[in-house]
Amino acid sequence: MTPLINQSRRENSAEHSWHLAMYALVLSEHASAPVDVLRVVKMLLIHDIVEIDAGDVPFHDPVARAGQAEREQLAAERIFSLLPDAQAGEFRSLWLEFEAGESDDARFAKSLDRFQPLLHNAATGGGSWVECQVTEEQAMTRYRPPIERGAPALWDESAELIRQHFHKPRND
Q1: What's the CATH number where 131 sits?
Q2: Per residue in 56-89, pLDDT tens?
């Protein structure tokens, strides 16, 4: 998880999910296509609960991410099996839609899932970018596709924040 903007500690999963739900409500006008905000919020919350159950790993750590998709698949199956069939089917469908990232709702949800930690990193002097020694090229490559696909205007702002971070004078 990324640091809180006040840098007092790392953001916890509940805060991350709350931020994303609020981002969906506030930023939906910037989606690349009209979206159903309630569906987007559901996708984000379901996606996060699966990540929490699987063990959320740092986005910028490829070693820790190895096998994450399989862990999340098992977590999703476990969580959804606890629900009544109709609800399990709905939640599984929303989770799979988010993971596939093909619908307008899923593209926007995925864009927010990348945009939110990017904002935190930019606002905290690099946050996990510094910790994981992320380069400007890596940041652009990792953030651009999902953000630009789901919310091009948010990508324009994101790209500028990344450039500002990597080109500001350092006080080393």
Answers
A1: 1.10.3210.10
A2: 777 777 777 788 899 999 999 999 999 999 999 9
- The answer to whether the pTM exceeds 0.90 is yes
- Domain extent, residue 93, equals 13-167
Q: Look at residue 2 and tell me if it is in a domain.
A: no
Give a yes or no: residue 131 inside a domain.
yes
In 101-135, alpha helices (H): 104-123, 127-131
If you ran DSSP here, which 8-state letter would residue 4 be given?
A: P
Rounded to 10 deg, the angle between the 85-100 and 68-81 helix axes is 160
Q: Answer yes or no: is 100 within a domain.
A: yes
Q: Is residue 58 part of a domain?
A: yes
Number of domains comprising the chain: 1
Q: Is 48:12 a contact under the CB 8 Å cutoff?
A: no
Q: What span, in angstroms and rounded, lies between the C-alpha atoms of 42 and 76?
A: 14
Say which residues have a Cβ less than 8 Å from residue 31's Cβ, sequence separation at least 6. Answer: 104, 107, 108, 111, 150, 151
**Nearest C-alpha neighbor of 106 from the set 13, 25, 44:** 44
CB within 8 Å of 44: residues ≥ 6 apart? 17, 20, 21, 24, 98, 109, 112, 113
pLDDT of 39:
98
